[in-house]
Design a protein that fits this description.
- This protein has helices at residues 2-15, 37-46, 265-285, 294-304, 325-333; strands at residues 19-23, 51-56, 66-70, 77-84, 91-97, 102-108, 114-118, 125-129, 136-142, 151-158, 163-173, 178-182, 194-195, 214-220, 225-226, 244-247, 251-255, 258-262.
- Helix 4 crosses helix 5 (325-333).
- The chain starts with a helix and ends with a helix.
- It is elongated, with a radius of gyration of 22 Å.
- It has a six-stranded antiparallel beta sheet, with no helix packed on it. Strands 1, 2, 14, 15 and 16 form a five-stranded mixed beta sheet that branches. Strands 7-6-11-4-13 form a five-stranded antiparallel beta sheet, with no helix packed on it.
- 42% of the residues are buried.
- By secondary structure, the protein is of the alpha+beta class.
- Helix content is 19%, strand content 31%.
């Protein structure tokens, strides 16, 4: 994707035209705080003159693929319970904790077989086969992770036995104590695999958690209700995301096989990207703001958003409000 973005930037420079890049994709892999290599690269690109980046917030708030826990000074353990269906096969989970906390982990299978607490040492990878089950468990630690300096703990289970798997997190050194765990994105994770204590918050996917881009959620423009799968913020670094909500339910468009309707935050990001292209035309092509890039467009769109008087903004579901391009131009007229 980074190579594709680089090609688009170079081509826009050759043509002497501004460009809006729509990233209608996401992942649950990464720290969700803006510090992954992918996010940092896109943050730099988003500040370039004549470039705007729109990202899809994701469709994960109801997927039960995120949970947040806390290890305290008094209770130095916390459990992560994962339900695995009869045909689910594998578990892949990322646990992210702050640089001030040192966490270690153990794993218990549905039949009670235990992979004991593995000491937290950076770069350590331990793989063990269970005796009474076909499952194979891997525990890995990475610290410090580039950018955020946080700790990443990876839990992998191959041929997971159906039932409830429990990962116990131990606080070897605790100052903050809060940790976040993610399963893979919907479509890369079996439908029955989920956290028992899931939370819909902080389900915005990477790279929409980056600093600088426009993060887009989705709503139903016919009844003004939030799209039920649209991911909720904030990011792990407590940055507000999504920032803008755009139409994303039963939107007409073309598939390879013909015309049809589509729903999701990728659709909302595409509509927002179209609005950004019109602002780029106004700013750079018509020379009203020749230095325009992502951060100016974001500010203009946020000021023009429609907002419900009964709701406080920004918030973790609706961001700063719903896209209203004509109001954005009205606001620009008053600048």
């Amino acid at each position: 994707v980074m190579t594709g973005v680089e090609y688009i930037i170079k081509k826009s420079r050759q043509l002497g035209r501004p460009v809006v890049i729509c990233l209608g994709l996401g992942s649950n892999s990464g720290s969700h705080d803006g510090f992954s290599i992918f996010e940092e690269y896109l943050s730099g690109v988003s500040n370039l003159r004549g470039v705007c980046i729109c990202t899809a917030a994701g469709n994960e708030c109801q997927a039960r693929h995120h949970m947040q826990g806390k290890v305290t000074q008094n209770e130095k353990t916390a459990n992560i319970d994962i339900k695995v269906g009869s045909n689910d096969g594998n578990i892949y989970m990322n646990i992210w904790s702050s640089a001030s906390d040192k966490l270690s982990a153990s794993v218990r299978s549905p039949t009670g077989e235990v992979i004991g607490r593995v000491p937290a040492r950076s770069g350590l990878s331990i793989t063990e086969k269970l005796i009474l089950e076909p499952a194979e468990v891997t525990i890995e630690y990475y610290f410090p992770v580039e950018g955020s300096s946080d700790q990443l703990t990876v839990i992998k289970v191959v041929n997971a036995t159906p039932g409830i798997w429990t990962v116990t997190v131990y606080g070897d050194m605790i100052l903050n104590g809060t940790f976040d765990a993610w399963l893979p994105l919907s479509g890369f994770c079996e439908k029955e695999t989920e956290f028992l204590s899931a939370t819909p918050y902080s389900t915005v996917t990477v790279p929409a958690t980056m600093i600088g881009a426009i993060s887009c959620g989705a709503y139903d423009h016919l009844n003004n209700s939030l799209y039920y799968q649209s991911s909720w913020g904030p990011t792990r670094s407590l940055i507000m995301a999504p920032e803008i909500i755009a139409p994303g339910v039963n939107i007409g468009g073309y598939y390879p096989i013909g015309y049809g309707a589509m729903s999701g935050t990728s659709t909302a990001a595409a509509i927002t990207a179209g609005a950004c292209a019109l602002l780029m035309q106004w700013g750079i092509i018509h020379k009203n703001d020749i230095s325009m890039s992502t951060y100016q467009i974001k500010a203009y769109l946020i000021r023009g958003c429609s907002r419900n008087e009964a709701m406080s903004y920004p918030n973790t579901q609706w961001g700063y409000g719903t896209l209203n391009l004509i109001n954005t131009f009205h606001q620009l007229r008053e600048v």
